[in-house]
UniProtKB/TrEMBL annotation:
Its cofactor is Mg(2+). One of its GO terms (molecular function) is lyase activity. SUPFAM superfamilies: Phosphoenolpyruvate/pyruvate domain. This is CoA ester lyase. InterPro entries: Aldolase/citrate-lyase_domain, Citrate_lyase_beta/mcl1/mcl2, Pyrv/PenolPyrv_kinase-like_dom, Pyrv_kinase-like_dom_sf. Belongs to the HpcH/HpaI aldolase family. Residues 2-225 form the HpcH/HpaI aldolase/citrate lyase domain. GO terms for biological process: oxaloacetate metabolic process. The lineage of its organism: Bacteria, Pseudomonadati, Pseudomonadota, Alphaproteobacteria, Rhodobacterales. The keyword Lyase applies.
Length: 288
C-alpha cells in the first residue's frame, strides 16, 4: 500500500471516480470532509458503496472521533458491510485502539463477520494529548496496521498561528512527524505520511513523498487524485534497489550463520537484511 486517497463519504459520484484512480486504498470519510448536516447522508452513501462487490481496492472508513459521540453510530452503519479497515482520528494512544478493537469485535460477532477481520489505522498526532500517548502503542494491538501523522488539527490544539515556516513544516510539526515515525516503528506497524496540501505543485508532492520514504514512511495519504502518480512513484522500489535487496538476502542465505557479509567491498549486516526484506515486500517480490 503506497497511496491512500481520502474520499468524502457523502458523494457516491466521487466514490466511483476514486475507484478509477491508481490509488492503492481509499478512505471513505465520515469525519472532516463531511458537514454536520450531511453526516447521516454520508453514512448511508458509504454503506451503500461498501456493499458493492467485487472490490477493486482496499476500503477503510474514517469514523468520527470518540469525543464527538458519533463513533458508534458510524460503526453501526458501516460494519454490516465489511469495511477492510477503520481509521480512527484524534487517537490518544493504545487505550483508544483497544477500545475500538472491542467495538469491532462486538460488531463482527453481531453481523457474522470473521473475528479480527477489520483492521485499525489511527491518526496519532492531532492533539497535544495524542502526542503524549505515542509511546503507548507498543506492543501493538493485533488489529493495528498503520499510524498516520497529521498537522492541521494539531495546529489548532497547540494554538499555533501556522504549521509552516515558509514551504516547510515548522518545529513542532516536524517533531510530530518524526515522533509518529518512531512510534510506528516501535509498534511494528506502517508509518503513513500526511497529505500534501500543495494541490497544484506535483514536483513538491514528489519531493515530499521521496523524503517520507527515505526516512522510513511506508505510505502517504492523498487528498487529490493528481497526487497519486508521484506518490506511487516515490514509494515504488526502483530496479537498482530491488537488485541490491536480492543480492543482500542471497548472500545471507548462503552464509546463514554470519552476522556480517561483504558485498562490493562494503560490510553488510543483519539490519541491512531486514531493510532488504522490506524493499522486496514493497515491490511485491518473493523473498529468496
Amino acid at each position: 500500500m503506497r497511496s491512500i486517497l481520502f474520499v468524502p463519504g457523502d458523494s457516491a459520484r466521487k466514490f466511483e471516480k476514486a475507484c478509477g484512480t491508481a490509488a492503492d486504498a481509499l478512505v471513505l470519510d465520515l469525519e472532516d470532509s463531511v458537514s454536520l448536516a450531511n453526516k447521516a447522508l454520508a453514512r448511508s452513501e458509504t454503506a451503500g458503496f461498501l456493499q458493492q462487490s467485487p472490490r477493486a481496492k482496499y476500503l477503510m472508513v474514517r469514523v468520527n472521533a470518540f469525543d464527538t459521540g458519533e463513533t458508534l453510530v458510524d460503526l453501526a452503519a458501516v460494519m454490516p458491510h465489511r469495511p477492510d479497515g477503520i481509521l480512527l482520528p484524534k487517537c490518544r494512544g493504545g487505550a483508544d485502539v483497544r477500545e475500538l478493537a472491542h467495538y469491532l469485535a462486538a460488531f463482527e460477532a453481531a453481523f457474522g463477520l470473521t473475528q479480527g477481520s477489520t483492521d485499525i489505522y489511527v491518526v496519532a498526532t492531532e492533539t497535544a494529548e495524542a502526542m503524549q500517548g505515542l509511546s503507548t502503542y507498543a506492543p501493538a494491538h493485533p488489529r493495528l496496521k498503520g499510524m498516520l501523522w497529521g498537522a492541521e488539527d494539531l495546529a489548532a490544539s497547540l494554538g499555533a498561528l501556522s504549521n509552516r515556516d515558509g514551504a516547510d513544516y515548522s518545529g513542532p510539526f516536524i517533531l510530530a512527524r518524526n515522533m509518529c515515525l518512531m512510534a510506528a516503528a516501535a509498534a511494528g506497524v506502517t508509518a503513513i505520511d500526511t497529505v500534501c496540501t500543495a494541490i497544484g505543485d506535483l514536483e513538491y508532492v514528489a519531493d515530499e513523498s521521496r523524503a517520507a520514504r527515505r526516512d522510513g514512511f511506508g505510505a502517504k495519504m492523498v487528498i487529490h487524485p493528481s497526487h497519486i502518480e508521484p506518490v506511487n512513484a516515490a514509494f515504488t522500489p526502483s530496479e537498482p534497489e530491488i537488485a541490491w535487496a536480492e543480492e543482500v538476502l542471497r548472500h545471507f542465505a548462503q552464509n546463514p550463520n554470519s552476522g556480517v557479509v561483504q558485498i562490493g567491498g562494503k560490510m553488510i549486516d543483519r539490519p541491512h537484511a531486514r531493510a532488504a526484506e522490506k524493499i522486496l515486500i514493497a515491490a511485491g517480490r518473493d523473498l529468496p
